[in-house]
Input
Amino acid sequence: MWGRQELVAEVLSPSTTRYDQGDKLLRYARSGVVEMWMLDPEDRQVKIYRFDRQPPLDPERILRGDDVLRIERLPGFELSLARLFRAP
Output
């Protein structure tokens, strides 16, 4: 990564879930990433991490079902989880 990353979105894969939720999460936190979305297509949920807030390695929010993703730095941006995880 170059420069400070404001937002990272990570899509979990069954083969790398343990790494993504462990070492990779810790690396993002230490590298200066402000916010991370961990998208889990299998469980149809999104965990929101804010590394600038305490405790940094616990999700600030877990979104499911009809919840809507919003980005503080992009007022007006909204993405429903129903739409995000909708089958093609």
Notes: The CA atoms of residues 47 and 62 lie 4 Å apart. Residues 17-31 form the longest helix (15 residues). The first strand starts at residue 7 and ends at 11. Strands lie at 7-11, 35-40, 45-50, 61-64, 68-70, 78-80.
